[in-house]
Input
Amino acid sequence: MRTGLPPLAVDGEALRLGQTLGRGGQGRVVEVLDNGGLAGGRALVAKWYLPSVALDAAALTRLVAWRRSLDEATRAAVDGVACWPHAVLLRDGRAAGVLLPRVLPVFWLDLRLPSGAHGRVLRELQYLIARPELLVRRGVPDVDAGTRLRLLVRFVEAVALMHANDVVLGDLSVKNVLFSPAGRGRVHLLDCDALRLTGTNPAVGQPNSPGWDDPAFPGTQNQQSDRYKLALTVLRVLARDFHTRDPDDAAGLLGREYLPLLRAGLSGDPDARPPTAAWLRPLRRRAEELTSSQER
Amino acid sequence: MSEDKAKLLPFYLLLDVSWSMDGKNLLEANDIMPTLVDAIAQNPILGDKVRFGLVDFSDDARVQLPLCDLLDPNLALPGLAARGGTSYAEAFRTMRKQIEHDVLQLKADNYSVHRPAVFFLSDGGPTDEEQEWRSAFAELTEYDRQTGAGFAMYPNVIPFGVANADPHIMQQLIHPSVGNKQMRMFMMDKGNNAPDAIRAMAEILISSVLNSGMGVANGASGVVLPDPSQLPAGVTSFSADDDDFL
Output
């Protein structure tokens, strides 16, 4: 018989940990071999922060508690699009990391490297923006226009879900959004431990990737800067250009009738930016148009 | 037509190819470039941002790989061979000339350019007179913003020392040595072997290039060095005022 809710914080010593899966700017990700009954048996990883990372234990606990507080359907929806902390990890009684769901195999990509070796990497948004010539050299299949738009729809749906639940994404970058082009498409938001709830502090410092910053909010991030970055993502995925901020570069794939939406999204005036959900119908319509014209 | 072009980050490896580097040391050093190329290939966004060049030195210094985009499909990586003594002065003089040439070229092509970073790898002390290499280093790194005297395009210098590199000399090649943009040096631990240390230095170089390119942790100078707690085994990092080594 179950004796209560799973704890918000788990002692790292109590877990059986496996090999290191990766090292990032903020910490080290390690395989968890035995869930101890957490996460309904879903594979987890332990992300241990570097000692130099300033950690707000209360904010981290808030993120974990927020997910627990969602109704079942919403929680399932969040888990479907985001790598969200399942529990705080303790070391010597202090918050030192988080338990995260392991990234699913569909979000991994095999690359042929220049040396001839093969690499296996996360299918990050940068592979959706990279030019076709480069993808060919890496042996990565390109995605067609309809799929490209469908993936953007999935991305906007994920951000809209977060915004509807008072989450601020903050740092949107080509490395913390994953995608899978198969079927109707899927996206996965990484580094959700760096997200925050509106009106609260972030648990760990929110990075601000250069080249993706919102000129209206140089130092801070909020849902309005999220809207700007969403528009920037749409632009760069359609233009296949990592650096452009010129809406006209997306005119071809987006269609001229939706350009005003993109321009508004990129406006220097935060109040002029359309809410996330405003993108859904235009992008869905455009995805359908492109898909049906491909099928002719 | 893009409004924004990437602000470029030029990196150089200034590599000792004196006779003592011959053999396993040079094999490891030779591996740095293809490994870096593969690492950048896994991050297509970096191809637009990062440029890399290699200058080797012994009695003279030669540009073996001109500053380039490592994702260029026509890239031909040079092979390295040992050849002579160890003139730090020649290394610094050639590096200065090359940086000036490269930065001016990039600016003429309408790029904006971050301050370059130079990873200086040596396995032994200089064979030139102290005065010689000191003044060449000063010409490479000194700049007075007020008067405009010196080299405005001075690079960040990150020394890597293995085998018989002199830690006291290497420490004086850290640039800038003070301030919030100060650099660090990386030295092989005593008792370690040079080829392994060179491979460790390669990891540090590559992670610095990747992290700097991604702008991780908002490194003020554009160059992001690894956290001292995250170094591969057998290597320790020091600042210009550390005196933890005898």
Observations:
- Residues 23 and 245 of chain A are 31 Å apart (CA to CA).
- DSSP finds nine helices and twelve strands in chain A.
- The domain at 113-295 of chain A is CATH 1.10.510.10 (Transferase(Phosphotransferase); domain 1).
- The longest helix of chain A spans residues 145-164.
